[in-house]
Amino acid sequence: MQNQLTTLLLQDIAHVFTQQRRLAEGAAQQVNDQQFFQADGSETNSIAVVMKHVGGNLRSRWTDFLTSDGEKPDRNRDGEFLADAETRQTITLIWNRGWESLDDTLAQLRPDQLGLTVTIRNEPCTVSQALMRSLAHTSHHCGQIVHIAKALAGSNWKTLSIPRGGSANLQGKFWTAEPR
Questions:
Q1: What CA–CA distance (Å, rounded) separates 170 from 134?
Q2: What Cα–Cα distance (Å) separates residue 152 from each residue in 23, 107, 122, 129?
Q3: Torsion, CA 158, CA 141, CA 21, CA 41, rounded to 10
Q4: How far apart are CA 19 and CA 13, in angstroms?
Q5: CA angle 137, 140, 156 (to 5 degrees)
Q6: pTM, whole model, 2 decimals?
Q7: Residue 70 and residue 110 in contact, taking contact as beta carbons nearer than 8 Å
Q8: How far apart are CA 169 and CA 167, in angstroms?
Q9: How high is the pLDDT of residue 179?
Q10: Which residues pair with 117 in a beta bridge?
Q11: What is the rounded CA–CA span in Å between residue 6 and residue 2?
Q12: pLDDT of residue 180
């Protein structure tokens, strides 16, 4: 029974990560290249910067996940918040590499590994804690991407979930990243 629950938990975590990725990508597709790099002030981040950061974070955390610290020595976290010399294509490549690292690790994780100890920045945590920490962090930033894109797209915005006033039309349907 416990093995079934942990298997279901891993599947659900992967599903929610996929939903968050699709939301962020759907939002980013609704802005042009100039808007993609646009920040609203010196202390705010553009969609490009947020995507670069998420990609770098995911790559670092999920590469060699069970055998090395989640903060890889080759990660330049501070550099993730600069996108002046980047193109949309290079940002997308960084984003995709991060998600590939996560997806590869999630595909290999076994239910009996959720209680193992891993480290992130030399801080020990269980695999389960690392998953929840990453899911929360990634979801936070995906929400930022949606918020920024929605503000930039303005009246051209195409909703990624239930449209305003559309709740009565649901009839038991809900938005998902993909059927389960």
A1: 31
A2: 16, 35, 39, 35
A3: 50
A4: 10
A5: 145
A6: 0.91
A7: no
A8: 5
A9: 43
A10: 126
A11: 6
A12: 40
Mean pLDDT of the chain: 93
> What does the pLDDT average to over 98-117?
97
Taking the CB of residue 118, how many other CB atoms lie within 10 A of it? 20
CB-based contacts of 113: which residues, under 8 Å, 6+ apart? 66, 127
* Residue 46 one-letter amino acid: S
Measuring CA to CA, how many Å separate 106 from each of 10, 12, 63, 165? 7, 11, 11, 37
Give per-residue pLDDT as tens, 151-173.
999 999 999 988 888 887 776 65
C-alpha dist (Å) from residue 111 to 8, 101, 102, 117, 126? 9, 19, 16, 14, 12
pLDDT score recorded for residue 42: 84
pLDDT at res. 172: 60
Could you read off the pLDDT of 71-104 as tens digits, one per residue? Answer: 999 999 999 999 989 999 999 999 999 999 999 9
Q: Which residues contact 139 (CB under 8 A, 6 or more apart)?
A: 16, 20
Read off the amino acid at residue 116: L
Q: How many CB atoms lie within 10 A of CB 70?
A: 22
Determine the Cα angle at 102 with ends 130 and 80, to 5°: 85
Structure tokens at 42: 């010196």
**Extended strands (E) in 63-180:** 117-120, 123-126
